[in-house]
Amino acid sequence: MMSACCNGGCSSDKPPVDPAYRRVLWIALVLNAGMFVVEMLSGWNAGSASLLADAVDFFGDAANYGVSLFVLGLAPVWRSRTALVKGAMMGLYGAGVLAVTGWHVFSGTVPKAETMGLIGMLALVTNGFVAALLYAYRNGDSNMRAVWLCTRNDAIGNVAVMLAALGVFGTGTGWPDVVVAAFMGVLGLMGARTVILHALTELRSEAKPQYRPVKARGVVLKRR
Protein backbone atom coordinates (compact mmCIF):
# COMPACT_ATOMS: atom_id res chain seq x y z
CA MET A 1 0.00 0.00 0.00
CA MET A 2 3.29 2.88 -1.65
CA SER A 3 9.46 7.14 -1.92
CA ALA A 4 14.62 11.87 -2.61
CA CYS A 5 16.82 13.01 -0.10
CA CYS A 6 20.12 14.89 0.02
CA ASN A 7 22.55 16.19 2.53
CA GLY A 8 26.13 16.94 1.70
CA GLY A 9 28.90 16.28 4.13
CA CYS A 10 27.92 12.72 4.99
CA SER A 11 29.85 10.87 2.33
CA SER A 12 32.10 9.26 4.94
CA ASP A 13 29.02 7.54 6.38
CA LYS A 14 28.09 5.70 3.19
CA PRO A 15 27.18 2.10 4.00
CA PRO A 16 28.37 -0.89 1.98
CA VAL A 17 25.80 -2.00 -0.60
CA ASP A 18 24.42 -5.50 -0.04
CA PRO A 19 24.38 -7.21 -3.48
CA ALA A 20 21.72 -9.67 -2.31
CA TYR A 21 19.40 -6.88 -1.20
CA ARG A 22 19.93 -5.08 -4.51
CA ARG A 23 18.93 -8.22 -6.41
CA VAL A 24 15.81 -8.59 -4.26
CA LEU A 25 14.79 -5.00 -5.00
CA TRP A 26 15.23 -5.52 -8.75
CA ILE A 27 13.05 -8.64 -8.64
CA ALA A 28 10.43 -6.79 -6.59
CA LEU A 29 10.45 -3.82 -8.98
CA VAL A 30 9.87 -5.97 -12.08
CA LEU A 31 7.11 -8.05 -10.45
CA ASN A 32 5.29 -5.02 -9.07
CA ALA A 33 5.44 -3.14 -12.37
CA GLY A 34 3.98 -6.17 -14.14
CA MET A 35 1.19 -6.61 -11.60
CA PHE A 36 0.31 -2.92 -11.86
CA VAL A 37 -0.53 -3.40 -15.55
CA VAL A 38 -2.45 -6.63 -14.92
CA GLU A 39 -4.52 -5.26 -12.03
CA MET A 40 -5.22 -1.90 -13.63
CA LEU A 41 -6.66 -3.53 -16.76
CA SER A 42 -8.52 -6.18 -14.77
CA GLY A 43 -9.86 -3.74 -12.18
CA TRP A 44 -11.16 -1.37 -14.85
CA ASN A 45 -12.77 -4.23 -16.77
CA ALA A 46 -14.31 -5.74 -13.62
CA GLY A 47 -15.45 -2.41 -12.16
CA SER A 48 -13.67 -3.19 -8.88
CA ALA A 49 -12.55 -0.39 -6.57
CA SER A 50 -10.39 -2.77 -4.53
CA LEU A 51 -8.55 -4.09 -7.60
CA LEU A 52 -7.92 -0.55 -8.87
CA ALA A 53 -6.67 0.43 -5.42
CA ASP A 54 -4.35 -2.57 -5.37
CA ALA A 55 -3.10 -1.71 -8.88
CA VAL A 56 -2.15 1.82 -7.82
CA ASP A 57 -0.43 0.32 -4.81
CA PHE A 58 1.64 -1.95 -7.07
CA PHE A 59 2.67 1.10 -9.10
CA GLY A 60 3.68 3.00 -5.97
CA ASP A 61 5.69 0.03 -4.72
CA ALA A 62 7.52 -0.32 -8.04
CA ALA A 63 8.50 3.36 -7.76
CA ASN A 64 9.56 2.82 -4.15
CA TYR A 65 11.78 -0.10 -5.07
CA GLY A 66 13.38 1.99 -7.83
CA VAL A 67 14.16 4.80 -5.39
CA SER A 68 15.45 2.30 -2.84
CA LEU A 69 17.91 0.99 -5.42
CA PHE A 70 19.10 4.54 -6.05
CA VAL A 71 19.78 5.34 -2.37
CA LEU A 72 21.33 2.00 -1.37
CA GLY A 73 24.91 3.34 -1.35
CA LEU A 74 24.10 6.77 0.06
CA ALA A 75 24.67 8.04 3.60
CA PRO A 76 22.10 7.18 6.31
CA VAL A 77 20.66 10.71 6.38
CA TRP A 78 19.88 10.49 2.64
CA ARG A 79 18.11 7.19 3.11
CA SER A 80 16.12 8.49 6.09
CA ARG A 81 14.93 11.46 4.07
CA THR A 82 13.98 9.14 1.24
CA ALA A 83 11.90 7.15 3.70
CA LEU A 84 10.06 10.37 4.56
CA VAL A 85 9.10 10.75 0.91
CA LYS A 86 8.03 7.11 0.81
CA GLY A 87 5.85 7.67 3.84
CA ALA A 88 4.24 10.66 2.16
CA MET A 89 3.56 8.58 -0.95
CA MET A 90 1.94 5.87 1.16
CA GLY A 91 -0.25 8.55 2.74
CA LEU A 92 -1.26 9.92 -0.66
CA TYR A 93 -2.07 6.41 -1.80
CA GLY A 94 -4.32 5.88 1.21
CA ALA A 95 -6.15 9.16 0.63
CA GLY A 96 -6.52 8.42 -3.10
CA VAL A 97 -7.98 4.98 -2.43
CA LEU A 98 -10.55 6.45 -0.05
CA ALA A 99 -11.53 8.98 -2.74
CA VAL A 100 -11.99 6.23 -5.37
CA THR A 101 -13.99 4.21 -2.87
CA GLY A 102 -16.32 7.14 -2.31
CA TRP A 103 -16.88 7.45 -6.06
CA HIS A 104 -17.82 3.76 -6.33
CA VAL A 105 -20.26 4.12 -3.44
CA PHE A 106 -21.87 7.07 -5.22
CA SER A 107 -22.08 5.26 -8.58
CA GLY A 108 -23.31 1.96 -7.10
CA THR A 109 -20.93 -0.21 -9.16
CA VAL A 110 -21.23 -3.99 -8.81
CA PRO A 111 -17.85 -5.57 -9.77
CA LYS A 112 -17.20 -8.98 -11.36
CA ALA A 113 -16.46 -11.32 -8.48
CA GLU A 114 -14.73 -13.98 -10.60
CA THR A 115 -12.17 -11.50 -11.94
CA MET A 116 -11.57 -10.10 -8.47
CA GLY A 117 -10.89 -13.54 -7.01
CA LEU A 118 -8.57 -14.69 -9.81
CA ILE A 119 -6.48 -11.51 -9.94
CA GLY A 120 -6.46 -11.24 -6.15
CA MET A 121 -4.95 -14.73 -5.94
CA LEU A 122 -2.28 -13.88 -8.53
CA ALA A 123 -1.41 -10.68 -6.65
CA LEU A 124 -1.20 -12.57 -3.34
CA VAL A 125 1.25 -15.11 -4.80
CA THR A 126 3.37 -12.26 -6.20
CA ASN A 127 3.45 -10.29 -2.96
CA GLY A 128 3.99 -13.39 -0.87
CA PHE A 129 7.07 -14.23 -2.93
CA VAL A 130 8.45 -10.68 -2.63
CA ALA A 131 7.68 -10.56 1.11
CA ALA A 132 9.59 -13.81 1.62
CA LEU A 133 12.60 -12.31 -0.16
CA LEU A 134 12.44 -9.12 1.94
CA TYR A 135 11.75 -10.76 5.30
CA ALA A 136 15.41 -10.83 6.33
CA TYR A 137 15.65 -7.03 5.89
CA ARG A 138 12.47 -6.03 7.77
CA ASN A 139 14.38 -4.68 10.81
CA GLY A 140 16.86 -2.53 8.87
CA ASP A 141 16.83 1.27 8.63
CA SER A 142 13.67 3.27 7.93
CA ASN A 143 14.15 2.88 4.19
CA MET A 144 14.28 -0.92 4.41
CA ARG A 145 11.38 -0.90 6.85
CA ALA A 146 9.31 1.17 4.42
CA VAL A 147 9.94 -1.40 1.68
CA TRP A 148 8.98 -4.26 4.00
CA LEU A 149 5.82 -2.55 5.25
CA CYS A 150 4.66 -1.80 1.71
CA THR A 151 5.01 -5.44 0.73
CA ARG A 152 3.39 -6.74 3.91
CA ASN A 153 0.44 -4.37 3.52
CA ASP A 154 0.06 -5.48 -0.08
CA ALA A 155 -0.23 -9.13 0.91
CA ILE A 156 -2.87 -8.25 3.52
CA GLY A 157 -4.71 -6.23 0.88
CA ASN A 158 -4.66 -9.16 -1.56
CA VAL A 159 -6.31 -11.44 0.99
CA ALA A 160 -8.91 -8.74 1.59
CA VAL A 161 -9.61 -8.46 -2.16
CA MET A 162 -10.25 -12.20 -2.33
CA LEU A 163 -12.63 -11.97 0.63
CA ALA A 164 -14.37 -9.06 -1.10
CA ALA A 165 -14.79 -11.21 -4.20
CA LEU A 166 -16.54 -13.84 -2.09
CA GLY A 167 -18.72 -11.15 -0.57
CA VAL A 168 -19.70 -9.68 -3.93
CA PHE A 169 -20.47 -13.18 -5.27
CA GLY A 170 -22.59 -14.04 -2.24
CA THR A 171 -24.50 -10.76 -1.90
CA GLY A 172 -24.70 -9.56 -5.50
CA THR A 173 -23.78 -6.05 -4.34
CA GLY A 174 -20.66 -3.90 -4.51
CA TRP A 175 -20.50 -3.17 -0.79
CA PRO A 176 -17.88 -5.83 0.07
CA ASP A 177 -15.65 -4.34 -2.65
CA VAL A 178 -15.88 -0.76 -1.35
CA VAL A 179 -15.45 -1.87 2.27
CA VAL A 180 -12.21 -3.66 1.37
CA ALA A 181 -11.01 -0.70 -0.72
CA ALA A 182 -11.65 1.61 2.26
CA PHE A 183 -9.73 -0.81 4.51
CA MET A 184 -6.78 -0.72 2.12
CA GLY A 185 -6.86 3.08 2.13
CA VAL A 186 -6.75 3.19 5.94
CA LEU A 187 -3.95 0.59 5.95
CA GLY A 188 -1.94 2.86 3.64
CA LEU A 189 -2.41 5.81 5.98
CA MET A 190 -1.33 3.76 9.00
CA GLY A 191 1.76 2.47 7.19
CA ALA A 192 2.62 6.05 6.19
CA ARG A 193 2.48 7.16 9.81
CA THR A 194 4.80 4.32 10.93
CA VAL A 195 7.40 5.02 8.23
CA ILE A 196 7.37 8.80 8.74
CA LEU A 197 7.78 8.55 12.52
CA HIS A 198 10.65 6.05 12.12
CA ALA A 199 12.41 8.28 9.59
CA LEU A 200 11.99 11.39 11.76
CA THR A 201 13.48 9.53 14.73
CA GLU A 202 16.50 8.57 12.63
CA LEU A 203 16.94 12.12 11.35
CA ARG A 204 16.82 13.55 14.88
CA SER A 205 19.42 11.01 15.98
CA GLU A 206 21.69 11.86 13.03
CA ALA A 207 21.33 15.58 13.71
CA LYS A 208 22.68 15.29 17.27
CA PRO A 209 26.27 16.60 17.61
CA GLN A 210 28.87 13.91 17.94
CA TYR A 211 31.63 14.42 20.52
CA ARG A 212 35.09 12.88 20.49
CA PRO A 213 37.48 12.94 23.46
CA VAL A 214 40.64 14.97 22.75
CA LYS A 215 43.66 15.24 25.03
CA ALA A 216 45.12 18.71 25.57
CA ARG A 217 47.99 19.20 28.02
CA GLY A 218 47.08 16.09 29.96
CA VAL A 219 43.40 17.05 30.22
CA VAL A 220 40.73 15.17 28.34
CA LEU A 221 38.50 17.59 26.48
CA LYS A 222 35.41 16.90 24.40
CA ARG A 223 35.46 18.27 20.90
CA ARG A 224 32.52 18.29 18.54
Automatic annotation (TrEMBL):
Transmembrane stretches, start-end: 24-42, 62-78, 90-110, 116-135, 155-172, 178-200
A GO cellular component annotated for this chain's UniProt record is: plasma membrane
The subcellular location is: Membrane
One of its Pfam families is Cation_efflux
Keywords of the record, alphabetical order, are: Ion transport, Membrane, Transmembrane, Transmembrane helix, Transport, Zinc, Zinc transport
- Membrane topology annotation: Multi-pass membrane protein
**Main location (coarse class):** membrane
Q: Which GO terms describe its molecular function?
A: zinc ion transmembrane transporter activity
Q: Which InterPro entries match?
A: Cation_efflux_TM, Cation_efflux_TMD_sf, CDF/SLC30A
**Does the UniProt entry include the keyword Cell cycle?**
no
Domain Cation efflux protein transmembrane as annotated: residue spans: 25-203
PANTHER family registered for this protein in UniProt: CATION EFFLUX PROTEIN/ ZINC TRANSPORTER, RE54080P-RELATED
- Its name, as the record gives it, is Cation transporter
Q: Which organism is it from?
A: Noviherbaspirillum galbum
